[in-house]
Design brief:
The complex is a heterodimer. By secondary structure, chain A is an alpha/beta fold. Chain A contains 24 helices and twelve strands. Among the domains of chain A are: about 55-165 and about 215-310, Rossmann fold; about 425-505, no CATH class. Chain A has helices at about 20-25, 30-50, 55-75, 75-90, 100-115, 125-130, 130-135, 145-155, 170-185, 195-215, 240-245, 265-280, 310-315, 330-335, 335-340, 355-365, 370-375, 385, 395-405, 425-440, 445-455, 470, 485-490, 500-505; strands at about 90-95, 115-120, 140-145, 215-220, 225, 230-235, 250-255, 260, 285-290, 300-305, 410-415, 415-420. Chain A is globular, with a radius of gyration of 27 Å. The N and C termini of chain A lie far apart (about 90 Å). Chain B has a single domain (about 40-215), classed as NagB/RpiA/CoA transferase-like (Rossmann fold, 3-Layer(aba) Sandwich), CATH 3.40.50. Chain B is built from six helices and twelve strands. The longest helix of chain B is centred in the N-terminal third of the chain and has 14 residues, at about 40-55. Chain B starts with a helix and ends in a 9-residue tail after the last strand. Residues about 215-220 of chain B have low confidence and may be disordered. Classes of the chains: A alpha/beta, B alpha/beta. Chains A and B meet through helix 2, helix 3, helix 4, helix 8 and helix 10 of A and helix 1, helix 2, helix 5, helix 6 and strand 9 of B.
Chain lengths: ~500, ~220
């Protein structure tokens, strides 16, 4: 094997620039914008059609929200129930408080099998913890088998979408990556490969098949874990998931603690809302469910790694905890005007788009530049809330997190209550708010100030001086009227004996 | 402190201020959504299944129980299949007229051996009309999960109308979570290139579904 392996990025990435800087490059890249626009608009229209097919969408959405909320509010109980039911079905349950611990557990389990390579189902949780890099450091090679993940892995690239990590690549770019890189990893791309999607998919089929057939260890995430039965569910399209879940002898599933649903019956909600919200299908091509191990069918050994990694901290935030309802459908990315222009990389996390803007700063905290800037990566238009199949009020959480960044306050980090200091860089905003509070509390001072502003309006600059310039670069300053409103009111209404405040006071 | 205790402790502290209700889950919330969408008779439900299967590029055949063996034989011949995997509990009558060499589903078979087999014929556990889905539960007439995955051509027989339900909620009621389930809606597909659907990636690229009417045979091994 060559030494060119570069897998998914470690989470969080080292010193990622703040969102506006990171987005700068993307918005100036016409190819990327074209790719994103084409893809997001295609899926938007399809999703709307798939949702319109079910007349009870609003009720399904409400049920999904309530099932998840109920689970989160009793999460300790359901975690214990999952442990019990998975164990009873023949699985082995592990607990990982953070990314390092999860990686250590998985690397240890792979080593126990004596194998040095694993096949992987696309999994956000394992991307989040940087599992591929951790395994590589232990001499274990992880092969991504989802087509988009393969494109990202072969292209030494970073994922930019939850559902379609290579959404930023068009078919021509994918052809070039396959032609150039596949031979480094195994079976080379077929001679004369064109850029038709069907041929590209065929190339991936041939390239990955030898890996599936010889794989002894599979690694997955899960879309759902059913507490009452201990059943795991993986929803997919290509069949790579089925390959990884059934052909290897050992299966290791890394699952966030928020993925639990209480009962088997609850799947009837999510198996209707998830496919329609993500790939805009009535049903995705393949869904696999398994409960522990089955004699002579599939893996003989099954490990479940329950991952916290910031989730319990997020749970401690009354407003922010709703982000844990997320079922990773990515509908919010596809409708977001900011995502459509900035692309996924600017979010500096495996969770891009609106959901990433509220999830990353909660899972990782707001200490870094990128995480403190993410709550601002939104115009608060609300389209994300509208399409969310579990009704996460993303704008509400964004505003909540903005407040936390600007004002600081109590938060939970790694299980401990800490008090955040107000972030740097918002001093001018805070000073302006303090001045406004002072003036609004003193009517005399406000009146004097307003009159002064009106009389000097001819001398007002069109843009703000100093750091305020960044704000007025793209905005017009509101014009100051010739006469303050209160003076106008008093002149026109107050003296006519109408219902003006003076008149009423007489 | 173990990580288990640490995580459970963090979760409990996070929820300490949350309102605690001890009402059982099913009483705490009502399921206001529909059990199925629209009103259809049995015939119409089967038609909808056929329509939705075809919409996601499964090839749909309809026949009577008497014609089933001939239908399957014809499909295998048309495909040019030399070998076909057969679950141990499959009704032997289904393949009585096929000239294709039968390969039994065995625990010892390697994935590489399976990869050299052309086709697979199975029954199913339930089919969902609204979504065009067939569900396999690893029963004796369906075999191990991998036999419907590695060969490139899957023929799945659905007994209509007995095995057909309208909706996802109705399907879940019929299924046993303890069994390993595979829900199949059309041949494998991907939307990973420009979010456009392309059929045929790792699973069988050709899915043929036979809707067999009035299945009289009761000798299906269970």
């Amino acid at each position: 094997m060559s030494g060119t392996f570069v897998g998914m990025p470690v989470f969080p990435p080292p010193a990622h620039p703040a969102f506006p800087q990171a987005a700068h490059e993307a918005v100036n890249n016409p190819t990327l914008r074209g790719n994103l626009r084409h893809a997001t608009h295609t899926i938007r229209a399809k999703r709307a059609k798939a949702v319109a097919e079910v007349s009870d969408w609003a009720e399904l959405r409400e049920a999904g929200k309530r099932i998840k909320d109920h689970t989160l509010l009793h999460l300790d109980r359901y975690l214990e129930q999952v442990e019990e039911s998975v164990t009873a079905a023949g699985g082995i349950v592990h607990w990982a408080a953070d990314a390092d611990e999860a990686n250590r557990i998985v690397a240890g389990l792979v080593k126990e099998t004596g194998e040095s390579e694993v096949v992987k189902v696309k999994s956000m949780a394992t991307q989040e913890i940087g599992l591929n890099e951790a395994l590589e450091a232990e001499g274990i090679r992880a092969y991504e088998t989802d087509l988009a993940e393969l494109i990202v892995q072969l292209g030494k690239d970073r994922p930019s979408h939850i559902l379609v990590p290579a959404i930023h690549r068009n078919r021509g770019e994918i052809r070039d990556i396959f032609t150039r890189e596949m031979s480094e990893w195994g079976r080379p791309a077929p001679e004369g490969l064109t850029d038709t999607p069907a041929e590209l998919a065929e190339a991936a089929r041939l390239h990955l098949r030898e890996k599936f057939l010889r794989a002894k260890v599979g690694i997955s995430g899960a879309n759902f874990v059913v507490a009452e039965t201990g059943t795991l569910v993986v929803v997919e399209s290509e069949g790579n998931g089925r390959m990884c879940l059934t052909l290897p002898e050992t299966l290791i599933s890394v699952v966030g603690i928020e993925k639990i649903v209480p009962t088997w019956r609850d799947l009837e909600v999510f198996l209707q809302t998830l496919p329609r919200s993500s790939t805009a299908e009535r049903m995705n091509p393949y869904t696999s469910t398994w409960t522990g191990t089955t004699d002579e069918d599939g893996p003989k050994t099954f490990h479940l790694v329950l991952l916290d990694n910031g989730r319990s901290d997020t749970l401690a935030d009354e407003v922010g905890r709703q982000a844990l309802r997320c079922i990773r459908c990515s509908a919010c990315l596809n409708v977001c005007p900011v995502y459509e222009r900035a692309g996924g990389h600017a979010y500096g996390s495996v969770y891009p788009g609106p959901i990433g803007a509220i999830l990353s700063p909660q899972l990782r905290g707001t200490a870094s530049e990128i995480d403190a800037s993410l709550p601002y990566a939104s115009s608060l238009c609300g389209a994300c809330y509208e399409v969310c199949p579990v009704a996460i009020d993303i704008p509400e959480v964004l505003v909540h997190l903005r407040e936390r960044v600007v004002q600081g306050g109590p938060v939970t980090r790694e299980g401990n209550k800490v008090v955040l200091k107000p972030a740097k860089g918002h001093a001018a905003e805070r000073a302006a708010m303090r001045a406004a509070r002072w003036a609004f509390a003193r009517p005399g001072a406000l009146r004097t100030g307003q009159r002064l502003a009106s009389r000097t309006r001819r001398f007002h600059p069109r843009t703000l001086p100093g750091p305020g310039g960044a704000w007025s670069d793209t905005r017009d300053l509101p014009p100051v009227p010739a006469e303050p409103f209160r003076d106008w009111w008093q002149r026109t209404q107050g003296q006519n004996g109408g219902n003006g405040d003076r008149g009423a006071a007489k | 402190m173990s990580s288990r205790e640490r995580i459970l402790g963090r979760v409990r502290r996070a929820l300490a201020a949350a309102p605690q209700d001890d009402m059982p889950f099913e009483q705490a919330f009502s399921r206001d959504y529909l059990r199925e969408h629209g009103e259809r008779g049995v015939e119409q439900t089967v038609d909808l299944l056929a329509e939705n299967l075809a919409d996601y590029r499964a090839i749909v055949h309809r026949c009577t129980a008497a014609d089933l063996a001939a239908t399957i034989a014809g499909m295998l011949a048309a495909r040019g299949s030399k070998t076909v995997v057969v679950p141990t509990g499959l009704d032997p009558g289904w393949l009585a007229e096929a000239e294709t060499e039968q390969v039994p589903d065995r625990a010892e078979s390697t994935p590489q051996e399976l990869d050299r087999v052309d086709s697979v014929v199975t029954a199913c556990a339930v089919a969902i009309a609204e979504t065009g889905t067939i569900v396999l539960d690893g029963g004796p007439d369906q075999g191990r999960r991998r036999i419907t995955l590695v060969p490139d051509h899957h023929i799945c027989v659905v007994r209509v109308p007995d095995q057909v339900v309208s909706s996802v909620p109705q399907a879940l009621e019929r299924l046993d979570p303890a069994r390993p389930l595979t829900w199949i809606s059309g041949p494998s597909a991907t939307s990973d290139i420009e979010l456009d659907r392309v059929e045929g990636v790792h699973g069988p690229r050709t899915l043929e579904v036979v809707l067999v009417d009035g299945q009289a045979s009761t000798e299906v091994t269970t």
